[in-house]
Amino acid sequence: MRRLNVGMLSFAHAHAYDYLACLQQMPEVTVGGIADPVPERTEELAMRHAIPYYSDYRELLADASIDAVIICSENVHHAEHTLAASEAGKHVLCEKPLGLSAGEMERMIAGCEAKGVQLMTAFPCRFLTPVVRAKEAFDRGEIGEIIAFKGTNRGSFPGPAWFAEPSLSGGGAVLDHTVHVMDLMNWFTGSPVEQVYAYAGTLFDPEHKRTIDDSGMVHVTFANGVFGVLDPSWSRNPGFPTWGDVTLQIIGTEGVISIDAFNQKNNVYGRASGKGSWSFWGDDMNGLMLQAFVQALLEGTPVPVTGLDGLRSAEVALNAYRSVQEGQPVKLHR
Amino acid sequence: MIKTAVIGCGGMGNIHADRYMSMPEAQLIAVCDINGEAAERLGLLAGVKYYLSAQEMLEREKPEVVSIAVPTYLHVPMVRLAADYGAHVICEKPLALTSAEAEEAVRYCNGKGVRLFVGHVVRFFPAYSQLAEGIRQHGGGRGGIYHAKRAGSHPGQVQEWFRDPALSGGVIVDLMIHDIDYIRGTFGEAEEVYAFEHRTETMNYASATFRFGNGTLAQLEAFWGYPGAFHTAFEYAGADVIISGGTPDGESVHVRRAAASGSAPGFVETPASVLLKDPYYEELEHFLRCIASGAEPKVTAEDAVQAVRWAEAAVSSGATGLPVKLDAKGGIL
User: Which part of the chain is the Gfo/Idh/MocA-like oxidoreductase N-terminal domain (chain B) (predicted)?
Assistant: First the structure.
C-alpha cells in the first residue's frame, strides 16, 4: 500500500492537535514532520510521537519525502505558508478561513495549480454524516428547489489569544464562524453569492474588554434568488452544555430539511462539574475530512473541497465586514 | 360581573368564549358570526344567544366588552361598530392590516371613550414572560442575540382568506407579529429591519432581522406551510446568559391517539399550554381587570399599532431587498 507522508505546519489553530490524533490513526499516513514556531506547545508532543520537529517551516518543506502539509497557522499566514508549500511541491490542506483577501486567495489557488499540487480548504462540516445525508436527500429532490436557509454556527470564544488579534486573525466571529455554514449553503445551492448584508458587534465579553467582533448576523442573496441568514456569534458561555453548534435549516418549495449536526449526543450531569453537558457520539468529521484528503492524494483524484470553495466562503465573510462598514448591502465583485 | 360578547366564532372566537365562560368575573352573554352554522354551534355550546348580525347583537345585548375575532380585514370596521355601541373592545391581533388603519382604530375608540386592547398573547405565555425577566436580570440592556421562530401548517387550508395578503397581511403581519410585539416589549425600539419573504399559494415563509440601538439583533422566522406540527422556538444569548425554550419540547403532557389528529376541525392551529390558567385566559382576565381598574395593560393599543408598523417595515424590506430604518416611534424613515 502506498503511504502518504504528511507534514504539519503550525499548531496555532488548536484543530492541529485533533488532526494529528486523527492522522496517527490512519495506517496509510506517516506524519513526517511538525513545524511550529512555538516549541513549548509542540516540541515535546513531536518527540513523544517520534516525529521530526522544526521551529522553521522551511526546514519541513525542504524534506523531499513530505507529500502534503496541513496548515494550521494564524489566518494571516495562510497565504505565505500555502504558497511556500506549493513551491516546494507539497499538496496543501489549509485551515479555514483560506485567506484574508480575495486577491490573496486567488494567488494561493493559482500558485497550487501552477505547481500541480492540490489545495483543499478544511471544511470538516462537509463530512458530517447528517450533512451528507441532508445533501443526498436534497439531491434526490425531496424538498424541491431551495428558497431560503437559516443557519447557525454559534461557538465559544476561542482559546488561542491570536483569534482576538486582528493583525493575526483578520477578523473575529464573523470571519471565523461564517465560513463553515456559508460553505454548506454554497454547496447546496451551487449558485454564487451576489449580495451580502451583515451586522457585527462585540456583545459577549462579560468584562467588556474585548474589541474584536464576537457577534453578528450575516445575510446573503444568491444569484438564483435564494436567501440565507447565518448567526456566526461566539455566544456560548462556559455554562452552556457544549462548545457550540452547527445548524442549517433548508426551506424548499416541497419541504424542509433541518440539520442540527451535533444533536447526536448524550446528556451528562456530573456532580463535580456542577453543570449538565452534551457528549457527542456522532461520526468524527475531522477524521472523515482527513481521510478524504489523504485518499484523494493517494488515488490522484481531485480533493473534495477545493481552494475555490474556501475563497467563495471566505469572501462572504470579508464582504460582511465591508457591509458592516458601509452600513448597507454590498454586491460581490467578480 | 362584566358582560362580554364575542364577534367571530372561529378558532379564536371559540377560545375567547370558552375563557369568558370559565372566568368568575365575566359573563358571556352572546356570540355572533355571519356564518350561521359557526354562530349556532358556539351559541349552543356556550348556552348563550347567538346572532348573525353584530349590530343586532350589540343593540339587543348591550355587552360591556366585546371580543373581536373576525378575519383581519374586518377588524377595524368591527372595532368601530363595537365602539359605536359603547363597548370596550378586545381585538385579536393584528389590530389592522396597515398602521394607518390601526391608528385610526385607536383614535376612534379614544373618541368614543371606550378602551381598546389587542390580543398579543405571547406576552402572556409564562415561557416568554420569564424569558423577558431573565433577559432583564442578566444585563439585557448590554445587548445580545435573539432568535425566534413560529412555524406551522398554512391557515389558508382552513380559512381561505389567509392566502390573500390583502386580507390577512401574510405571514409577517399575521404570524411574525407575535414575535415582533414580543421583541418590542422586551428590547425596546429597533433602528432597522432587514427581511426576506417568499409567498406562494401553499407557503409563506419570512425571515427578518431587527437591529436595536444597543446592538441587540433579533432574528425572526415565520412560516405558513411548514410540513410538520406547529412549533415555536426562542433563544436569547447575552454575555452572561443563554435562555432557550420552545414547543413542543416545553410541554409536559402529550396525549397520543391511534387515530390521526391535527387542528380542531375548521380551526387554525393555535398553541396550547397545560396550565390552570392558560395564556389566553391570563390575557383576557388581565384586560378585564384593566377595564375595571382603569390601569394600563401590559400591552397597549399603541403597542399594537407599533407592531403593525414594524411588520409593515419588514414586509417592505422583504419586497425591496433593502434594509428599512425605523424611527424612534417605529415609523419607517
Answer: 2-120
Are the C-beta atoms of B73 and B97 separated by less than 8 Å? Answer: yes
| B144-181 residue pLDDT tens | 999 999 999 999 999 999 999 999 999 999 999 999 99
In the predicted model, what is the mean pLDDT of residues A265-271?
A: 94
Query: B281 lies in a domain?
Result: no
Q: What is the distance between the alpha carbons of residues A18 and A27, in angstroms, rounded to a whole number?
A: 17
For residues B167 and B200, state if they share a domain: yes
Rounded distance, CA B20 to CA A319, Å? Answer: 55
CA–CA distance, B195 with A150 (Å, rounded to integer): 12
Say whether pLDDT at B333 is over 70.
Answer: no
Using a CB–CB cut-off of 8 Å, the residues of A that contact B are 147-148, 150, 152, 154, 195, 197, 199, 201-206, 208, 215-217, 219, 221, 227, 229, 231, 233, 235-237, 239-240, 251, 253, 255-256, 328-329
| Contact (CB, 8 A) for B24 and B42 | no
Report CA A88 to chain centroid distance, whole Å: 24
Beta strand A53-54 with A29-35 is parallel
C-alpha cell at A124: 470538516
Cβ B196–A329 below 8 Å, yes or no?
no
Residue B135 shares a structural domain with residue B161: yes
Closest CA to A315 of A109, A97, A95, A76: A97
Q: Are B132 and B113 found together in one domain?
A: no
Q: For the domain that residue B255 is a member of, what is the CATH number?
A: 3.30.360.10
Is cis: bond before A166, omega within 30 of 0? no
How far is Cα B99 from Cα B170, in angstroms, rounded to an integer?
A: 15
Residues B115 and B142 in one domain: no
- Are residues B47 and B87 both part of a single domain? yes
Confidence category of residue B216, pLDDT binned at 50, 70, 90: very high
**Please, where are the H alpha helices in chain B?**
11-21, 36-46, 54-61, 75-84, 99-112, 126-137, 165-168, 170-171, 177-187, 279-293, 301-320
The domain total for chain B is 2
Instruction: Report which DSSP code applies to A71.
Output: E
Rounded Cα distance between B299 and A17, Å, is: 54
Q: What is d(CA A284, CA B78) in angstroms, rounded to the nearest whole number?
A: 60
Q: Give the DSSP per-residue string, A41-61.
A: HHHHHHHHTT--EESSHHHHH
Cα separation, B64 vs B4, in Å, equals: 6
Q: Are residues B113 and B128 in the same domain?
A: no
With residue A173 as reference, give the H or E element that holds it: helix A173-189
The predicted-structure confidence for B41-81, as pLDDT tens digits, reads as follows 999 999 999 999 999 999 999 999 999 999 999 999 999 99
Q: Tell me the residue type at A127.
A: F
Residues 6+ apart with CB under 8 A from A119: A82, A86, A91, A92, A94, A108, A109, A112, A303, A306, A307, A310
Domains of chain A with bracketed CATH? 4-122 (3.40.50.720), 127-283+314-331 (3.30.360.10)
Q: Note whether B108 and B202 are same-domain residues.
A: no
Domain closes at, from B96, B119, B142: B119
In a domain, B284, yes or no: no
> Which positions 191-230 of B are in contact with A (Cβ < 8 Å)?
194, 196, 198, 200, 203, 205, 207, 209, 211, 215-217, 219, 221, 223, 226-228
- Domain membership of residue B203 as a residue range: 122-274+301-325
Interatomic CA distance for residues B237 and B216, integer angstroms? 10
